[in-house]
Design a protein that fits this description.
Strand content of chain A: 15-25%
Largest sheet of chain A: 8 strands, mixed
Shape of chain A: globular
Radius of gyration of chain B: 24 Å
CATH architecture of chain B: Orthogonal Bundle
Structural class of chain A: alpha/beta
Oligomer: heterodimer
CATH superfamily of chain B: MetI-like
Shape of chain B: elongated
CATH architecture of the largest domain in chain A: 3-Layer(aba) Sandwich
CATH class of chain B: Mainly Alpha
Number of strands of chain A: 23
CATH class of the largest domain in chain A: Alpha Beta
CATH topology of the largest domain in chain A: Rossmann fold
Chain lengths: 694, 307
């Protein structure tokens, strides 16, 4: 891998102390090319950005935008078929592309550290955690004892309360959050000048994510490290970064101060992306989300003009022929668009108002579960005495972190997992057989599911036509013209085209696959559709279209949804009522807006405040400490007491499980603290920002 | 509106194993074009070609061997017994004066009849059993797994031996015996593949349609485990060559004087002491070349399916 000629300027001989005035990282006009089957494909084009000392820079983009490629290139970790084909990189004034082996090793071990999405894969599974961290110090010549001490000290800095114990563990014995801290400890061990974080919290639960993000922010202060933060999550970037660059199909389209870019975006892509995300106050029945039409161009595209032009509502002839330069649109903010001044008025791709169909409104209960419990072998109590009802035509949002029992609840309802004795599941007041195989077809028809991952849920050997048709012939007894008509109607509703019918799932994009899965679920006209994280595998712009679709279909088909998601913004947008689960128990139930506005259960409160949001500043965060307890050995009394910041000093929380009490009309909370008191407590701390939410 | 231009968004895979062209073709005529693309990949592999050439050679020998073999493989010339390879007898002659080259050429027939038939039988039975074990699970799987393990613990020659003694050694019997001996082996591989498929959501999704177990197994799961079965089939085919040759060597193959590689080695290996190496070497090379050919093909198929 040779660097192009011209910047082989001799690197300053091992400049030990970087010049404080000089930026940590300067990337100018960087191109990256992959050679695929003998052909060069441009993966990144003309990307320039700088990161100053102690600054945090966010790189945000959807999948395929080239964010990770950019990060890999900085330390020359590109796969063998990739190379930096143009432009320059300077890290502390030195050019990694011109470095020899020894200098490169020094760069990777002392100057730049990386943290990846999966902490489990960054740690060696067969070496104890302490040893792995100590190694970093030993490389630098510390004695084994001193290195162990340094490792322990480092773990304490990443707020691991019992470092000695954690050091003796193997990576698989640590929870995801704990393992990611250990990785961060390792990354910071050498006080690098630049820390690259590539989706560091994407695999973590909301409350754990919040802790890790806080940790990174605190460490940044302490170590004065520059940070390159890569994420698809705009809210996380907004929370963590000083400046942000928006990457699309390998090109930087806009950059500037993070808050400013997200509050006043000036590139049509940024504008469109932000409109795809449900914001506080938006509801499915009033506001449809905007979408970005079209698809990302194929990699290696040979395109003239603006790369976003084919999908842009503002594009003129000029955009298709002439490549726009960066325009300074505001202080420190630049957008690569000729019509940046019109960007905020980008015409919507999707009309804003929901189609004015007469809603039948929400009817009586259709599905009810009582005293629902499920204990898996090994004593893991996934569900413990859950009572809830789904009403006709409503969306019931199910919220909780991993291990809360959300998915088990859905599986029990569908008859895929048998609940414990004494649990009651009814459909229209008739008890359901716990085993789907023993349920009559009519019952199977009534309950359908949209799985999280269409790759797994759609048989890859079947055509789209047979995937959608089969449930209709099986469960609704359709055949001949009736079947053809319904198929036609469905693919129109989910906006597939006729030509898709002959394809297999692997020939479709993620969004199209999920549309097939949705059409399949709606085929037999179900009464209740379980949506298990239906958009979590999709990009933001695709997610918006799917959410609109779910909202439209509910109107059209009068179905109820049990909507499971870890994304509170989505749940708020789509749900009529919300159930908050923790360790298999219902902590709070109520109408969506009531639950969100509060007063809430202390767990709900913590969960909401943990999730980064693009909306105005959050109330002071309610910090949870400790790990989510194991469902095999739940805490006594209130299961939340081990992490509850509002635990009562009387000891009642530790000894007695509070009842789920109806505190207001339809709003139930499982807490020893009376709602009036919760209201006072929570208003005191969060009053300033609550006014903003409608 | 919105995100449905139509083409599968290539963005999902920036390094695109599928170029835009391939995608475009796939969209126009998906069912006909996608599968052959894999076969074309196969044809690009030299190892596949090497294996195929050898295999085709032996197939030609098995079918037409009698017509182009230089001598009648059964014709005895007692005066010309135990002759070393020469211009007249390239591979020499055996103790009865029969031409070794002609016996090697025509000896391909039995082994090439029994081997594929036995392997097909074993694959069909093994697939059915493996699907049932993997999908139904529970006590059926437990019981069947123990039986399979018990059979696998015994050397297959012993089992085959028992059956041949009990049932006689005609071509159909040997075919069935080898097929049955392979069944548990193949069942175990298929079961493992089915277990991997069962963790995917389309299996519970089929159950939610009230599909019968037979349909879930054969219409939903089977097409997805076909690649694994195909690889298993080719691997077993090579084993079957060994199995047939071993049985004939032990005297349980087709009865003499029919030319047969294993039986010929068995009949003549004592001649090695007297220096008559050609009587053993050439049939042995024939067996080896057939096994190697099939293994090369199996390997190529596996590589192509894995890519």
């Amino acid at each position: 891998m040779s660097s192009p000629e011209g910047y082989g300027a001799p690197a300053p001989a091992s400049a030990a102390v970087p010049d404080p005035a000089e930026p940590t990282l300067i990337v100018s006009n960087m191109d990256i090319t992959y050679k695929v089957r003998g052909q060069d494909r441009l993966a990144l084009r003309d990307v320039s950005f700088t990161i100053g000392r102690g600054e945090s820079y966010g790189l945000v983009g959807e999948s395929g935008s080239g964010k990770s490629t950019a990060a890999l290139a900085l330390v020359r970790y590109l796969p063998r078929n990739g190379r930096v084909s143009g432009g320059t990189i300077r890290i502390n004034g030195r050019d990694p592309l011109a470095m020899g082996k020894a200098a490169l090793r020094d760069l990777r071990s002392h100057t730049v550290s990386m943290v990846y999405q999966e902490p489990g894969r960054a740690l060696n599974p067969s070496i104890r955690v302490g040893r792995q961290i100590a190694e970093v110090f030993e490389i630098d010549g510390e004695s084994s004892d001193a290195a162990t001490k340094s490792a322990e000290e480092m773990l304490r800095k990443v707020q691991i309360s019992d470092p000695a114990r954690v050091m003796g563990r193997y990576p698989h014995e640590l929870s995801g959050g704990m393992a990611q801290r250990a990785v961060i400890a390792m990354a910071l061990a050498k006080s690098p000048s630049l820390l690259i974080l590539d989706e560091p919290t994407t695999a973590l639960d909301a409350t754990v994510e919040a802790e890790v993000l806080d940790l990174v922010a605190a460490l940044r202060q302490e170590f004065r490290t520059s940070i390159l933060f890569i994420s698809h999550n705009l809210a996380v970037i907004a929370k963590m970064c000083d400046r942000v660059g928006v990457l699309y199909a390998g090109e930087l389209l806009e950059q500037g101060p993070a808050r400013q870019v997200f509050d006043d975006p000036r590139h049509p892509y940024t504008v469109g992306l932000l409109r795809c995300i449900p914001r506080r106050g938006q509801r499915k029945d009033r506001d449809r989300l905007d979408t970005i039409p079209g698809f990302l161009p194929a990699p290696g595209h040979a395109m003239t003009g603006c790369i976003f032009a084919p999908r842009c509502g503002l594009a003129q002839d000029r955009c298709r022929t002439e490549s726009p330069p960066f325009f300074d649109v505001a202080d420190l903010q630049a957008a690569r668009c000729f019509y940046h001044d019109q960007a905020p008025e980008l015409p919507r791709a999707t009309p804003s108002s929901a189609p004015a169909l007469a809603t039948d409104g929400i009817g009586g209960p259709i599905v009810a579960v009582e005293k629902l419990a499920k204990t898996f072998p090994g004593g893991v109590q996934a569900l413990a005495g859950v009572d809830l009802t789904v009403h006709r035509g409503e969306t019931l949002g199910l919220v909780g972190e991993s291990g809360s029992g959300k998915t088990t609840l859905a599986r029990v309802l569908l008859g895929l997992t048998a609940p414990d004795q004494g649990s009651v599941v009814t459909l229209e007041d008739k008890p359901l057989n716990p085993d789907a195989r023993r349920r009559p077809l009519e019952i199977l028809r009534a309950l359908q599911i949209v799985f999280q991952n269409p790759d797994s849920a759609l048989n890859r050997r079947h055509s789209v036509r047979s995937l959608i048709s089969r449930p209709m012939t099986r469960l609704a007894g359709l055949s001949g013209t009736a079947l053809r008509d319904r198929l036609e109607e469905l693919i129109t509703s989910v906006r597939l085209e006729d030509r898709h019918l002959a394809l297999r799932p692997y020939q479709l994009s993620g969004g199209l696959k999920q549309r097939v899965a949705i059409a399949r679920a709606f085929g037999p006209r179900p009464d209740v559709v379980v949506c298990d994280e239906p958009t979590s595998a999709l990009d933001v712009s695709v997610q918006a279209a799917i959410l609109n679709l779910l909202a439209d279909l509910q109107q059209q088909e009068h179905a109820s949804y049990l909507f499971i998601s870890h994304d509170l913004g989505l749940v708020r947008y789509l749900s009529d009522r919300i159930v908050v689960l923790y360790l298999g128990r219902v902590m709070e139930v109520g109408p969506a807006e009531t639950v969100f506005i509060g007063p809430h259960h202390p767990y709900t409160e913590a969960l909401f405040s943990a999730v980064p949001s693009l909306d105005l500043e959050h109330p002071e965060r309610i910090k949870l400490t400790g790990e989510i307890p194991s469902a095999a050995d739940p805490p006594t009394g209130c299961v939340f007491h081990t992490r509850c910041p509002r635990r009562l000093s009387t000891g009642i929380c530790e000894s007695t499980e509070p009842p789920l009490l109806e505190e207001e009309q339809g709003h139930l909370i499982r807490c020893h603290i009376p709602i009036t008191e919760l209201r006072i407590l929570q208003r005191k701390e969060s009053a300033p920002s609550q006014g903003g939410s409608a | 509106m919105s995100d449905l231009g139509g083409l599968p968004s290539p963005s999902a895979d920036p390094l695109g194993s599928l170029g835009t062209q391939t995608v475009a073709i796939a969209v126009e005529a998906p069912t006909q074009r996608v599968a052959p693309a894999r076969w074309r990949l196969l044809l690009r592999r030299p190892t596949f070609w090497a294996g195929a050439v050898i295999l085709v050679f032996w197939i030609v020998c098995a079918v037409f061997g009698r017509s182009f073999a230089p001598y009648n493989p059964l014709a005895q010339q007692l005066l010309a017994a135990n002759q070393a390879p020469s211009g007249a007898h390239w591979f020499g002659t055996d103790p009865l004066g029969r031409d070794v080259l002609s016996r090697v050429i025509t000896g391909a027939r039995t082994i090439l009849i029994i081997t594929p038939l036995a392997t097909i039988l074993g694959t069909i039975l093994g697939t059915a059993l493996g699907l049932a074990m993997g999908y139904l699970g529970g006590w059926f799987d437990t019981v069947a797994s123990r039986i399979v393990e018990a059979i696998l613990a015994l050397p297959f020659v012993i089992i085959a031996f028992l059956f041949v003694v009990a049932l006689g050694n005609s071509v159909p019997t040997i075919t069935v015996i080898i097929g049955l001996v392979f069944t548990p082996l193949i069942a175990r591989t298929v079961r493992a593949a089915v277990l991997a498929e069962r963790s995917l959501d389309y299996v519970p999704a089929a159950r939610l349609l009230g599909e019968r177990p037979a349909r879930v197994m054969f219409a939903e799961i089977l097409p997805n485990v076909m690649p694994a079965i195909l690889v298993e089939f080719t691997v077993r085919l090579a084993y079957a060559v060994f199995a047939v040759a071993t049985l004939s060597f032990l005297g349980f193959g087709v009865p003499p004087p029919t030319p047969d590689w294993g039986a010929d080695i068995s009949a003549n290996y004592t001649g090695l002491l007297a220096g008559y190496w050609w009587q053993v070497l050439f049939p042995a090379l024939a067996i080896a070349s057939l096994v190697v050919a099939i293994t090369l093909i199996a390997d190529s198929i596996e590589q192509v399916l894995a890519s």
